[in-house]
Design goal:
CATH topology of the largest domain: BirA Bifunctional Protein, domain 2
Bound molecules: histidyl-adenosine monophosphate
Number of strands: 16
Helix content: 25-40%
CATH class of the largest domain: Alpha Beta
Strand content: 15-25%
CATH architecture of the largest domain: 2-Layer Sandwich
Number of domains: 2
Structural class: alpha+beta
Radius of gyration: 28 Å
Largest sheet: 8 strands, mixed
Distance between the termini: 48 Å
Length: 429
Amino acid sequence: MALITKKIKGTEDVLPKDSYRWQFIEKVMREESAAYGFKEIRTPVFEHTELFARGVGQTTDVVQKEMYTFDTKGGESVTLRPEGTAGAARAVLEHALDNEGLPIKASYFVSCYRYEKPQAGRLREFHQFGLEEYGTQDPIADAELICAAQSIFDRLGITQLRLEINSIGCPECRAKYHEALKSYFAEYKGELCETCLSRLEKNPMRILDCKSPVCSKIAENAPKITDYLCEECEQHFESVQSYLRAAGVEYTVNPTIVRGLDYYTKTVFEFVTDCIGAQGTVCGGGRYDGLIEQLGGRHMPSLGFAMGLERLLMVMDSQGIEIPDDNTCRLYIATMGEKARLKAFELVRTVREYGIFAETDVVGRGLRAQMKYADKIGAEFSLVLGDNELEQNTAKLKNMQTGEQTEITLDEDFAESFMKLIISRIAEI
Ligand code: HAM
């Protein structure tokens, strides 16, 4: 039968056989970020469109071209989140989390939606892990946040990842920089794409991250923000770098990094790799000192980053990093006859109570087919239960790899005996 419909372009399924890969990296991210004091925040997948228009910025590619926006039956305009920062900031404000003391440290896993042209490493639905920290303007926080990202990459065994940092200043230095950009780009009015022409007056910095080849070529020689930083921003940037050096985190200053979202101020950074093709930015972030105010809150300097989980897994694959699949079947109980089935049903339950993955037949296979299946799922041990075993109340536990057999009693201590056996086996390894 033909499929009714296939998955939407730019989306991916994570199949049961592969989900351990996601769970592994997520576990590492949870543990590392917890060590840095971050607690998870969960926000809705859709928000009022205005939140992103105001937060991410009207003149960004994300808002102008890529958002999944629709009107609800109630006539509200809502948007599927294109990123996690705006929603988290909204929640912090709405629940007045700053009353609980600063800084507030939040982590998240979010699915994001951007109507971009799909290619390797660029999806329309993708997943991010992010950290956000609210209520500190101290450069030590910038360095600490970068260290948290670095720790995650280190624990995952990822190498060949460059950390590139820059400062894009505060509104004060930005104003001067905008003037310089305007006069530079004005020379190329005839060549810029239509979107960039409209950006020229409103937000010329956005021309720097336009994806059109003509605009990006022109942007190559544009003035650099680092030449326009005010003293405070320059000092902040210097200080971030000295903390990074103290932490032994390697980085390069890349004055062309401006990030594609409007909320950034001062420090911005990206972790970039060459091993997964054109979409090599695995993680991006920076400071956003004005965002909370822009959303209606008080002045609350903040910062954060997000890493793309799909890209991260691609990097790990390309670097041949093996991800352990812990959830292998420890025990398969094959059965002959209804009585044995009932006994096996009971035994696997007791084993599972120890959190051990155990299986028995639930599809009505014959004995041979059951053993074939046990082999296929990679069961470590198997047990065959028939009338004889039930009568004697013992059975032979077979190590599927070595063929070695051990007698085991089918009493109430069965699960415990089995567990001890597994533990002693792990100890041997
Ligand atoms: P972003 O650079 O737009 O920043 O996205 C962060 C990461 O998400 C990227 O480095 C990339 O790994 C991944 N990513 C972005 N777009 C796609 C896509 N179409 N397909 C696959 N992966 C993608 C942000 O979203 C900011 N909210 C980060 C941040 C948090 N800044 C401060 N706090």
